[in-house]
């Protein structure tokens, strides 16, 4: 894939070595077209949207609302009213937790999530359970990080919310979200999907999935930090209270009472991140230009090559499915006898960026019986040569630490 020149940051030298950026599940790098779109916004379009009738305010409104339309098409939503801008996945899920969960759940109700959730799709539900008296239950993955279909039987008549990641940021597992959503609907529950790791790597249609809520972050999708999206079904969003209160989200304000703006503005209080929207718009254009077929092909090639190489190293333990068909471009692993932070530091000295730690999924790590792991995550701009370099350096880590091999 000939895209490297679009991403100048990939030419950086770090610690005297060429950067190999394998921390894409944390955040992706930005192509020049995204950087240029932000520059154009700053130079020619910056104003406060929705607030004025002058040129720059109108330009900013066009950028912002144009991005909403683009996101609508990108995720296959039926209406742009169903696209709410937030700061990130975390804020999107909190919006649902506060405006839907806190208001609709009561003692005796159940919230069901998987053990593989990122804290941002776990802690908000703990809070909803604590405040409403409902209870939080888990569907557990098997030893390889796959969700057995029998776990879906936990979704019963008392269940009001089912929340699940589309793709685990630790295991790499692609979760059976369609089956989970259908099951949730069969008992009258709403389904909340955390798409932070899926949207950048596969074509998603929220309409085909029939998700009630779907959350993702721009910064894992080649865009700037600080812009995220919550998709919600119109009827649900309409029925919900606002999350934040203040400017822009109102219709009329009286001394003691306020009526609220229509969708989607009801959920967008205060001046919004239009620069981020400009960035997200250009990022979606870039991804659409490449196409998900090409993106998936390259990312699967990289993942397969890395998995095969890692399987040959006896001191590497791969966390998550070993079968390529069940996972995305995220590989968590441990190196026997070497702490993940040492692994990451040694790899960094070779210019290789990987993650170390609990990956914001402490309950999962505890369940798997590991304190921490490393994680290499790929994006279509990575190369097989980079994977080979990484595999070679993995081989050197144990020697650094004084082991024979
Ligand atoms: N869910 C998953 C699966 C993630 O990987 C992440 C980011 N690591 C998040 C949620 C949270 O994303 P953000 O920090 O952008 O809100």
UniProtKB/TrEMBL annotation:
NCBIfam families given in the database record? sufS
Q: What is its EC number?
A: 2.8.1.7
Q: Which GO terms describe its molecular function?
A: cysteine desulfurase activity; pyridoxal phosphate binding
Q: Which cofactor does it need?
A: pyridoxal 5'-phosphate
Q: Which PANTHER family match?
A: CYSTEINE DESULFURASE (PTHR43586), CYSTEINE DESULFURASE 1, CHLOROPLASTIC (PTHR43586:SF8)
Q: By what name is this protein known? A: cysteine desulfurase
Q: Name one GO biological process term.
A: cysteine metabolic process
Write out the entry's keywords from A to Z.
Pyridoxal phosphate, Transferase
| Keyword Transferase assigned | yes
Similarity field = Belongs to the class-V pyridoxal-phosphate-dependent aminotransferase family. Csd subfamily.
Q: Which InterPro entries match?
A: Aminotrans_V_dom (IPR000192), Cys_dSase_SufS (IPR010970), PyrdxlP-dep_Trfase (IPR015424), PyrdxlP-dep_Trfase_major (IPR015421), PyrdxlP-dep_Trfase_small (IPR015422)
* Source species, domain of life: Bacteria
Q: Which organism is it from?
A: Youngiibacter fragilis 232.1
């Amino acid at each position: 894939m000939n895209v490297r020149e679009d991403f100048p940051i990939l030419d950086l030298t770090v610690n005297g070595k060429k950067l190999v950026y394998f921390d894409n599940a944390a955040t992706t790098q930005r192509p020049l077209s995204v950087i240029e779109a932000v520059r154009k916004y700053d130079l020619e379009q910056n104003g406060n949207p929705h607030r004025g009738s002058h040129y720059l305010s109108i330009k900013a409104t066009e950028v912002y609302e144009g991005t909403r339309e683009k996101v609508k098409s990108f995720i296959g939503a039926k209406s742009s009213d169903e696209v709410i801008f937030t700061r990130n996945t975390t804020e999107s899920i909190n919006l649902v937790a506060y405006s839907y969960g806190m208001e609709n759940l009561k003692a005796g109700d159940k919230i069901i999530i998987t053990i593989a959730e990122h804290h941002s799709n776990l802690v908000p539900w703990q809070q909803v359970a604590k405040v409403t008296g409902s209870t939080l239950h888990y569907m557990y993955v098997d030893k390889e990080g796959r969700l057995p279909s029998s776990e879906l039987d936990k979704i019963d008549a008392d269940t009001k919310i089912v929340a699940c990641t589309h793709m685990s940021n630790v295991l790499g597992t692609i979760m059976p979200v369609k089956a989970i959503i259908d099951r949730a609907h069969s008992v009258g529950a709403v389904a909340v999907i955390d798409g932070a790791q899926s949207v950048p790597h596969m074509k998603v249609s929220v309409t085909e999935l029939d998700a009630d809520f779907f959350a993702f972050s721009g910064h894992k999708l080649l865009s700037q930090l600080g812009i995220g999206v919550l998709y919600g079904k119109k009827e649900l969003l309409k029925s919900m209270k606002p999350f934040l209160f203040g400017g822009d989200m109102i219709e009329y304000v009286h001394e003691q009472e306020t009526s609220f703006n229509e969708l989607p503005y009801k959920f967008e209080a205060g001046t919004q991140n239009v620069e981020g929207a400009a960035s997200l718009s250009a990022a979606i254009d870039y991804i659409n230009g490449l196409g998900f077929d090409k993106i998936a092909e390259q990312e699967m090639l990289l993942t397969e090559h890395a998995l095969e190489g890692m399987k040959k190293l006896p001191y590497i333990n791969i966390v998550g499915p070993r079968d390529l068909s069940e996972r995305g471009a995220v590989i968590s692993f441990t190196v026997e006898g070497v702490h993940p932070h040492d692994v990451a530091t040694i790899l960094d000295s070779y210019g290789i960026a990987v993650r170390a730690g609990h990956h914001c999924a402490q309950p999962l790590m505890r369940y798997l019986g590991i304190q921490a792991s490393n994680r290499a995550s790929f994006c279509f701009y990575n190369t097989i040569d980079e994977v080979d370099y990484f595999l070679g350096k993995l081989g050197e880590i144990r020697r650094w630490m004084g082991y024979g091999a």
